[in-house]
Amino acid sequence: MRVSRRDFLGATGALAVTGSLGSVGAFAQGKDILLGSVLDNSGNLDIYGKPMVMATTLAVEELNAAGGLLGRKIKAIQYDTQSDIALYTKFAQQLARTDKVDVVHGGITSASREAIRQTFKRANTLYFYNVLYEGGVCDRNCVVTGTTPAQAVEPIVDYAMKKWGNKVVILAADYNYGQITAKWLQYYIKERKGTVASTDFFPLDVADFGSTIAKIQQASPNFVVAALVGGAHMAFFRQWAASGMNKKIPLTSTTFGVGNEHLALSPAEGDGIVIAGNYSQEAQSPANQEFLGRWKKRFGDTKIVHEIAVSQYQGIYAWAAAVKKAGSLEREAMLKAVESGISIEGPAGTVTIDPKTHHAALDIHLMEVKNQKLTIINTVKQRPPADTAQYCDLIKNPNDNKQYEVKI
Q1: Model confidence over 102-153: pLDDT tens digits?
Q2: What pLDDT, in 10s, does the model give residues 365-377?
Q3: How far apart are the first and last CA of the chain?
């Protein structure tokens, strides 16, 4: 079942998208469909969260302007978790127990996801996690629309090792995303007969990388992979450029650009960083250009649109496609719709949910930062979530509920 946004909106109800996106036509009698969201609209991770909150608002307004779902209006209940895991736990319980929402789209870091995922599973509240992460979550109640290492990290390793050599330094955020991503990086590098000179982890509040840069200079790797996260870690990229190392050792990243970090650096600081991901504003597809036009009309500034804002938007449309196919919000009907292999066309391309893993096959761009833009070097269509698929088969094992890690 592949549905473009235009076809989807045209088929969902009586009202076309015209005039203000906030306008809503007549809805059938019945209570609103409740869509919950828990995202960091403030705090250290707000560079990721603010655009995701806006993407949630835009998607819900568009769906409502097209007649809602099942003839009912969608109401978004959004909580600001302020980059605080304790607030994630609090608001997840509130969404599930008090608000009794029909679905939740939320979480940014893997730590935040794992703080809330079990709450929604116990409450039978369908949960969409729309962010790139380290892979391995196997939970029938959870749908993942962001990239995993086999989709995005492996192409970086392939490209960098072929272009620059096989001695690598890894830097990563010190929580489960960084720790597990580092393992995947080590796996892919060693699989290709490469050498990991060192792997270092950094808490999210670390902003001084002087000794780290000196250590890298001494190790003299062929390239560096940085799986760093958040506002404080932006200091690494500035200090790397200030030290002159950006002219000496190539730099790649599994996260840079996801929060529009390339706009925060000058071209002199950011040019040349290589990343792989699902989205670039530079993509010239009609779907992306139309999406950016709608964003500009609603919010003004399109510069803040980044990959996980687009992933959040696409995740909501994937959920809406499942509701339409199921013809119901009943959980088992929804899960069967998800497991039918639903597919939508979004700003980042085709998003197809894999029935066995509940993860998405996605188009992946290899990109280089040039003059504060993510210039696309190459695109691979519909890379599957092969890493998670090594361990997870929810068709055979529907009661599975864990996060698997790669064994090296």
Answers
A1: 999 999 999 999 999 999 999 999 999 999 999 999 999 999 999 999 999 9
A2: 999 999 999 999 9
A3: 37
Last residue within a domain, chosen from 277, 304, 328 = 277
The pLDDT tens digits for 152-182 are 999 999 999 999 999 999 999 998 889 989 9
Asked whether residue 268 falls in the same domain as residue 330, the answer is no
Going by C-alpha positions, the residue among 197, 188, 190 that lies closest to residue 155 is 188
Give the chain's domain count. Answer: 2
Question: What's the pTM?
Answer: 0.86
